[in-house]
Design a protein that fits this description.
With 272 residues, this protein is α+β, with helices and mostly antiparallel strands. The chain has eleven helices and twelve strands. The chain has two domains: 46 residues, Uridine Diphospho-n-acetylenolpyruvylglucosamine Reductase, domain 2 (2-Layer Sandwich), CATH 3.30.43; 206 residues, Uridine Diphospho-n-acetylenolpyruvylglucosamine Reductase, domain 3. The termini are far apart.
Length: 272
């Protein structure tokens, strides 16, 4: 690691002020991405602002909305009775992130802010049409993700909570890297009040993306059979030692069909 100053503010306002004061300062949530990056000397922040004491934890349900505090861990989301009842697909997603140690340290806000192209939560947020709340504003998921490791967040902007609308049906399936459990390809499908949304992670060169071709046919027939003829172009997909772009294109279809089959068996009871 390079030398840096470590700060642990007791409020979101103090944390934002520290980030605003130095363009090279970095916020840290669970540290599951930042710490390995620091150890490998791939990043050199002047200040690391630890958000652990900012109080951004907790899960609440109000009507057809599930709100999750940004510092809530993956394990807490996976084990939440409220999430399991309202959005079981999101609890399933959280339960299959990394290993037990990662799930007890990593946070939902940290995952979304980092926007790793193989992370699971971006697919869930995009497919469910989530709203990312910050200390400054509310950002729709469609506007939040802006490319690999890139989001709409400003330097001094901190995610405080994520609001998830409760879907009619939803499911997430991924083909995980056997070592890291990152998604080589992950597909989250959701039938929402605003229509069908399909989000793909792990495959795109620009990070998470919506599969509009699938969304169009699924709007008329929400079933695995409906996308049997849909193919995913490989031109804009990642290719690496784990999977070629062509194989990822194939996996998008396979994971989408599995997710749809699962979603079709699950119906969430929404308040009247």
């Amino acid at each position: 690691m390079y030398d840096f100053t470590y700060q642990k503010p007791g409020s979101v306002a103090d944390a934002a002020a520290m980030l605003a004061a130095d363009a090279d300062a970095k916020a840290m949530a669970g540290g599951m991405t930042l710490i390995p990056v620091l150890k490998q000397r791939l990043n050199k922040p002047s200040v690391v602002v630890d958000l652990a004491k900012t109080g951004l934890t907790g899960i609440t349900v109000s009507g057809n909305t599930v709100t999750i505090g940004a510092m809530t861990t993956h394990a807490a989301v996976a084990g939440s009775a409220e999430v399991k009842a309202k959005i079981p697909a999101l609890a399933h997603l959280a339960a299959h992130i990394g290993d037990q140690q990662v799930r007890h340290r990593g946070t939902i806000g940290g995952s979304l802010a980092n926007n790793d192209p193989s992370a699971d939560y971006p697919a869930g947020a995009l497919a469910l049409g989530a709203t990312i709340k910050t200390n400054k504003r509310s950002i729709k998921a469609d506007e939040f993700f802006q490319g690999m490791f890139t989001t709409a967040l400003a330097q001094d902007e901190i995610i405080t909570a994520i609001e998830f609308p409760v879907p009619e049906k939803a499911a997430y399936e991924k083909f995980p890297n056997p070592a890291s459990r990152y998604a080589i390809v992950g597909v989250f499908v959701a039938k929402t009040a605003g229509g069908v949304r399909v989000a793909v992670t792990g495959a795109g060169q620009g990070g998470v993306f919506r599969h509009t071709a699938m969304e169009q046919v699924l709007s008329a027939n929400f079933s695995a059979d409906a996308i049997a003829a849909i193919t995913t172009p490989s031109a804009d997909l990642n290719g690496d030692i784990h999977a070629s772009a062509e194989y990822r294109a194939h996996l998008v279809g396979v994971m989408a069909k599995r997710a749809l089959a699962k979603a079709s068996r699950t119906t969430v009871r929404r308040p009247a």
